[in-house]
Amino acid sequence: MIVVVDSGSTxxxxxMVNSKGVQTISxxxxxxxxxxxxxxxQELQEAFDDGVKPDEATQVFYxxxxxxxxxxxxxxxxxxxxxxNNADIEVEHDLLGAARATCGREPGISCILGTxxxxxxxxxxxxxxxxxxxGYLLGDEGSGTHxxxxxxxxxxxxxxxxxLKKKLEExxxxxxxxxxxxIYGKETPNVYLASFTKFMSQNIHHPFIQSLLYNSxxxxxxxxxxxYRNHLSLPIHFIGSIxxxxxxxxxxxxxxxxxxxxxxxxxxxxxxxxxxTNN
Length: 279
Description:
The protein is α/β, with parallel strands linked by helices. It is built from 13 helices and 10 strands. The two termini are 15 Å apart.
């Protein structure tokens, strides 16, 4: 049995593939920056019911947030070894997962646009370059968090039309103080900021929303994707809900810069399964 895992910090998708078919499981996400080996092990013990037979696994391919060096990869690897004790285990950063899911064995530029954002240059085997991701305080251009910030700033700075302002206040009752409390008084302001993309999706044809989306994606492309060698000749691939649902705007940004749009994938797990079962 082959096990393929795509894990963010909040949710993980698991696919267990054998001759009988594919079993799909969802668990909490794990990030070794925040979660210890014992925490990961205990959560998996509880999450896997009698229908999961880890002893049958021969290979485990895990792609996760926070797995960017050998020490952090080791935290996850040790926990997985205690569960899948007969398997060869490979733990990699989620950027390599994004690259393998979108590019397969071909060179390309792979971008993640979800709650946060990231990108990399991929040579068909490994990630060879990565423009630094500064997180939601200083970066995350093109992400749900970045878009939410832009919309909220426009609301507070009185830049929304009366009609759009009314719609926003109806969608988010409580007014400005409730927004500020969520942003500055809660533990996950980035998730709250990203939640405003639902409103933007519902009002995507409004000229102001179109402009806001365009500017955010243009900033991401200019500050990240265009910094990579051969960016004009390589396809630019995307993973994540923001990229998937707003891909029409992203395509315009790329085409205006003579760049080639590639694949737009909401979740990488199925493509990662294909990558590992076909290679």
